Amino acid sequence: MSKKNKTWKVKYSLLNYFKPSLALKNFSELDIFLLKTNNIKLFICDLDNTLAPVINAAPSFAAKKFVKDIQNMGILFYVCSNNHKGRVKKYCDALKPDGYRSFCMKPFVFRLKRLIKKLNIKPEEVLMMGDEFVTDIFAANKLGCKSILVLPLGGQGRSTSTKFTQFLEKKVHKRLAKSNMLLTYKTFKNDTKLL
Ligand SMILES: [Mg+2]
Questions:
Q1: Per-residue pLDDT tens for 19-75?
Q2: Which of 136, 106, 151, 119 is nearest to 40 (CA)?
Q3: How far, in Å, CA of 143 to CA of 17, rounded?
Q4: Which residues sit with Cβ closer than 5 angstroms to ligand 1, an ion?
């Protein structure tokens, strides 16, 4: 395939919907000053396998510090999870984010859209972090937000998603990696803007 054809294919590929701005091992790896240089005003974070493994009811010290550090930069921190209210409320009562939403129904975006509108923030000033391409990253791209993919904290086997979603996740990951579309800190220059 010619170079021109290849560029065209990457530009218009459906894979773009699943492409995160940045891919990290976990939330602790994020250099939060990147949020300021990219003019982020709202940080939307997934809960299960992103901030904590599914089995953990309470936030870790690292998760609490992560949220506090971001809030101290003047950035709003919201937890948006597809999980039920009981789980999300209990976790967030201890985490103390600026707000939370349970039963978000990602990859559908209407609940997230409503939240962003209510807070009067532009989509390009929002960063979403999550462990799944097909829910978190897809929703972020649909909204026009920036996004960060992290590896599932509890490991692949501890996912809340169905077998079918897990199968899709693996496929998407493989294709993105093959097309060189996963930007990590290794390939990322500090002055680069998050797309
Ligand atoms: Mg998750």
A1: 999 999 999 999 998 999 899 999 999 999 999 998 888 999 999 999 999 999 999
A2: 119
A3: 10
A4: 46, 48-49, 131
Q: How far is the CA of 35 from the centre of ligand 1 (A)?
A: 21
* 131 CA → ligand 1 middle, Å: 5
Planar angle of CA 80, 81, 86, nearest 5 degrees: 115
Element (H, E) at 80: strand 76-80
pTM for this entry: 0.88
The residues near 52 (Cβ < 8 Å, ≥ 6 apart) are 58, 59, 60, 63, 91, 153
Q: Output the CA 59–ligand 1 centroid distance in Å.
A: 15
Q: How many CB atoms lie within 10 A of CB 44?
A: 28
Phi-psi region of 72 (alpha: psi -120 to 50; beta: other; left: phi over 0): alpha
Dist. CA 83–CA 55, nearest whole Å: 12
Q: What is the DSSP letter of 68?
A: H
CA 36 – ligand 1 centroid, Å: 25
